[in-house]
């Protein structure tokens, strides 16, 4: 108990700095979490969007085919694009592209209809149309419209091939009429689903979680930064005080075994970590309580799983602080190490940038850090990430993420004890 009291006195001497850290980082994480949570909910509210209309010019040079391909394209795309006319000359085409007069120019070469018909009926490779566009302009909306229009053109040609393959006697014009009729009967819209992909499951289905649940999950994920910074600060301050030469000499002559002393020190560190954990949980609950759905919108199962995962992560950070403290470098150096590790973990974990937006190479590296598994565990407690959150925990994936965090904690403690013994032998 004497060791616990000494650790508490060390912590109390640094209480003001700790409270400043906790308040500043907690408020920052809360504001960021609310923004992320409401943004993902806003994405979920919009099920579809109407892409901007693109301008299209069709230059049909296939007089041998009766200009059937150009007429089919013009008829099919007239409902989703603004058809404009330009002169069939190199200068006119270059001017239209340079001035952004059109988004896409389709050039049908001579003999295209015959080549297309032959390829469609023999299941061969379709001949390519010449496409030119103004996608290199500064207007990102125009570039997006050009890409969308190109996708529609390729889709129409694919449908046209299928129609001609099904009816070997149909001409290209008849097949185009069949495709247009099938599209009209199916009620196909030009709207495109706007659901965001899941970070882990590859699903694009939108979830049914309330805004308060989304805010709670996002706020808890962004709490990675205050959890790591404050808990590591607490542990390092205590460990550094006990690693001072004067303290070590007293520990050496004490009747209490050394492992028992360090066990009490770790107990105090874990207790302080639990207090920081409760503060962060309280902030996340307060943020979600003022959102639509209130606390009832979180759901008791996601709440329970996310609280357990966050507590395990708090213990993992305590173990990390124990390892850093055993390095016995200066306080300034330890603060630099903690800030560097914390910022890197917050950025690579997915707390600030969604995990599914990261390149695969970066994801592979980020999985080597416990922060990745913390954020993954929080979102798996809610069944996904972003607009894919369903509110139903994926217990298997959550358990795997939590288990990885526990393994990190054990590894940090083992390495910390080894470093401490090595440092003691050197002295």
From TrEMBL:
Principal location class: membrane
Keyword Lyase recorded: no
Molecular function, one GO term: ABC-type transporter activity
This protein's UniProt keywords: Membrane, Transmembrane, Transmembrane helix
Annotated coiled-coil segments of the chain: none
Membrane topology, as annotated: Multi-pass membrane protein
Keyword field contains Transmembrane: yes
InterPro entries found in the cross-reference section: ABC2_TM
GO cellular component, as recorded: membrane
Domain ABC-2 type transporter transmembrane: 28-417
Source organism superkingdom: Bacteria
Residue intervals passing through the bilayer: 18-39, 215-241, 261-291, 303-324, 330-349, 395-419
Compartment(s) of residence: Membrane
Name this polypeptide is given: ABC-2 type transporter transmembrane domain-containing protein
